Every structure is written in C-alpha cells, then in structure tokens.
Amino acid sequence: MNRAIPVCLRLALVLLASTSLGMSPAGASGFQPLHSIKAAALAALPAGSDAEATVDPSLRVPLCPLSLTTALNRAQSVEVSCPSEAGWRLFVPVRIRRSQEVLVLTRGVAAGQPVTEDALTGERRDASRIVGATLSDPAQAVGQLARRTLVAGSVLLAGDLLSPRVVRRGDNVALVSRRGGVEVRMSGKALGDAGENQRVRVENLSSRRVVQGTVAADGEVWVNR
C-alpha cells in the first residue's frame, strides 16, 4: 500500500538507515533525484503552462524502479507517486505563472505630480505576484496624479492614481440636467473636490437643495448622468 509522505518531511526510516550506515542524507545513494520529482509534477500540468514546482531540498525518498506517475490534485499541487509495491506518494506544490501586459514606471513620480507618457513602458509580468488592479493602456494613466511617491521599476496600479481636480470645494459651478431633449441649467456651489467623471455633492443656490452630480471635463456638473 502506498504511503502518503508530506513534501516537507523526510522519511524517518530512510534517515535512520542512512545514519546507521554512517552516510549523510545528501551523500547517500539510492534516493529519487529531486529534479525528477519536480519534472514529473510540471509535466502533469496543461501543455504550455509557465510554472514552477517546489520540493523541500532535504526530502529523501527511495529510488523508484518504475516511471513516476502523477495526478493533478488541484491547481496548487500535483500528486507524484512511485507505483511499485513498496512505493511512495507525495504532493508537490506548484505555482502557475499567469503573464499579462502591465504598465511599469521607467522613473519615479513624486506624490501629487502628473504621470507623463515618457515615465511608462509596457512589460509582461506574473499576475499572481501583483496585488491590485493593473493598467495596460498608457491612456489610462497619462495626466493622472500620483497618489503617493511612485518608484521606478514598480508596476503602476489604478489605486496609485488620482484624477486631476476639475472642481474644488467652494467653487461656483453650473448644474446641468437634460431630460427629453430639454436642458436646464442652474447655479450651484461644489461641496467637495472632484476630477473628471467623478461624483461630487453640489448645493443648488436657488433651492438650497444638495444634490450629487458627475463632473464633466469643462467643470460642469451633470445631475442625471
């Protein structure tokens, strides 16, 4: 019967035998090469997968007289087994790299400064190592302001950027409403800062009602967009 062996542990009996024979685990013969276990795990993944397998360097399992068999256990591990009568079985962690095009900073940008096109380049990076919403089109970033100091070589994320302020708190703005082909304009006062296509609260100076609207590029606030 196969014995389940955690990938991070040695086989106690193998270690005991090695010690009794005066051999160090690293120099002892008759163990399955670790590279063959890794290769078997990677071969079990879908063709063309860009992945890496992790095997504890201290792992020692007996040399298998037969070809290793594998089963994709789940996305994060592969079951590798020696199918002989006195065989063994272990689970090898694998990490599949998902490459995608992202924007990377070619130079640093200070907090509050606009991002320019010459500060950006496109690169393919491992998506599993990136935390946050990435950007791929320079048009999504050029002209936006750095929320904090951005370091050269880092991946640019949507959360790193702020829209330039078109409307600021206290500004007099035009409130615009259009329904059924009829456009109505009213005077208002902005109650907060906002950039293009962002929402802002505005006080209608005629009715004193506070409404929310969307800021247009020219600073008008549309209340029914």
**How many strand segments?**
16
State which percent range the strand residues make up. 25-35%
Q: How many domains make up the coordinates?
A: 3
Query: Total helix count?
Result: 2
Give the integer mean of the pLDDT values.
84
Q: What gross morphology would you assign?
A: elongated
Task: Profile the largest sheet.
Answer: 5 strands, mixed
Report low-confidence residues grouped into runs of 5 or more. Answer: 1-28
Structural class: mainly beta
User: Order of SSEs, N→C?
Assistant: EHHEEEEEEEEEEEEEEE
Q: For the CA atoms, what is the radius of gyration? A: 30 Å
- Which range best describes the helical content: under 10%, 10-25%, 25-40%, 40-55%, 55-70% or over 70%? under 10%
How far apart are the termini? 68 Å
What do you see in this structure?
The chain is mostly beta strands. The chain has 3 domains: 4-96, no CATH class; 99-162, Antifreeze-like/N-acetylneuraminic acid synthase C-terminal domain (Type Iii Antifreeze Protein Isoform Hplc 12, Alpha-Beta Complex), CATH 3.90.1210; 165-222, Roll (SH3 type barrels), CATH 2.30.30.760. Helices cover 8% and strands 35% of the residues. The chain has 2 helices and 16 strands. The chain has helices spanning 12-20, 34-43, and strands at residues 4-5, 51-53, 69-74, 77-81, 89-96, 99-105, 120-126, 145-146, 161-162, 165-167, 172-179, 182-190, 194-195, 199-204, 210-215, 221-222. Strands 1, 2, 3, 4 and 5 form a 5-stranded mixed β-sheet that branches. A 5-stranded mixed β-barrel has the order 11-12-14-15-16. The longest helix has 10 residues, at 34-43. The radius of gyration is 30 Å and the shape is elongated. The chain starts with a strand and ends with a strand. Mean pLDDT is 84; it is low at 1-28.
